[in-house]
Write a structure and sequence with these properties.
Blueprint (H helix, E strand, L loop, with lengths): L6 E5 L6 E6 L5 E5 L2 E6 L2 E6 L5 E5 L6 E6 L2 E6 L10 E4 L6 E5 L5 E7 L2 E6 L5 E5 L6 E6 L9 E2 L3 E6 L4 E7 L5 E7 L10 E3 L2 E5 L9 E7 L5 E7 L8 E3 L2 E3 L11 E3 L1 H5 L10
Antiparallel strand pairs: 1-2, 3-4, 4-5, 5-6, 7-8, 8-9, 9-10, 11-12, 12-13, 13-14, 15-16, 16-17, 17-18, 19-20, 20-21, 21-22, 23-24, 24-25
Length: 283
């Protein structure tokens, strides 16, 4: 954690004691990868040994106010601000050495969406609305499509498909071929998901939590067959759900936003085995 006084602290989870602390400055650019705690401020990124706090490496030439996250084994750095003269490049740093692996810069600010076997998805929202698929090893652009990807909804990236919530009117769950970005199938959603939702893979299914059409109405939990986009099943949650489902073996667990209501745990085991097209049980 970084305190408001700009002190980076690492706490031992076994007993809660502070393992080490170091004055580094104030910045939201904090993450961890491997045996390193990685912090960025004033255009520099530093990897600290998570046991001792000793700096392992420092990399410069980055945005003055960076934001960082780890995806697909890379530390991805973007600017936390926008405006004239502010870099728009997405920089990938190797966490083991601090070496810059690649930069991708389409000339406008980017948002990192998700990574998976097919690559790294990023989106642009400011000047254009585009979805990009990058090779995470080289940063090479594999394809791009002019589309609005719903903000806050994390796409599912498999070895063959990219599933994202796209559009504004209408809003759709879209399956694109990872090879070239062409649309394989799509389904119009009554309302967009809310909050930091994620398109989840549950065996042969893609699962997405929707929002109620009107306040007080059930929130649909939707499952699609990954192969063809056909509806596998739908379960109406009894109340609004603002967080993404949690997958457990054979079940999808939901956390309602209404603390007075307990939501269902829907089983997709019968779908997986081909025994039917409705949830096997609800708890």
């Amino acid at each position: 954690m970084v305190t408001t006084a700009g002190v980076l602290q690492v706490v031992n989870l076994a007993d809660g004691t502070v393992r080490w602390r170091r004055t580094v400055g104030v910045s939201p650019a904090l993450t961890a990868a491997g045996q390193l705690v990685i912090f960025g401020v004033n255009g520099r990124l530093t990897g600290y040994d998570d046991r001792t706090g000793r700096p392992r490496w420092t990399t410069g030439g980055l945005p003055d106010q960076p934001t960082v996250l780890v995806a697909d084994g890379l530390v991805l750095v973007l600017s936390n601000t926008q405006g004239p003269g502010i870099t728009t490049a997405l920089t990938a740093v190797l966490p083991a050495t601090g070496r810059v692996a690649w930069r991708f810069d389409p000339g406008e600010s980017l948002t990192v969406l998700s990574a998976g076997p097919a690559g790294l998805t990023v989106a642009a929202y400011v000047f254009s609305r585009r979805l990009y698929l990058l090779d995470p090893r080289t940063g090479r652009l594999r394809w791009q499509e002019a589309t609005f990807v719903a903000q806050g909804i994390v796409p599912l990236v498999t070895s063959t498909d990219i599933l994202a919530v796209e559009g504004q009117s209408p809003i759709r769950l879209v399956d694109r071929a990872a090879a070239d970005g062409r649309v394989r199938w799509q389904d119009t959603l009554t309302t967009p998901p809310v909050g930091q939702q994620q398109v989840l893979a549950a065996g042969p299914l893609a699962v997405l939590q929707g929002a109620p059409v009107t306040p007080g109405q059930p929130a649909p939990l939707l499952a699609y067959r990954l192969t063809n986009g056909r509806a596998a099943w739908r379960v109406d949650m009894p109340t609004f759900v603002a967080t993404q489902p949690v997958l457990t073996p054979g079940h999808v667990l939901e956390q309602p936003a209404d603390l007075m209501s307990a939501c269902a745990a829907a089983s997709w085991a019968r779908i997986r085995t081909g025994a039917g097209n409705r949830p096997a049980d609800r708890a």
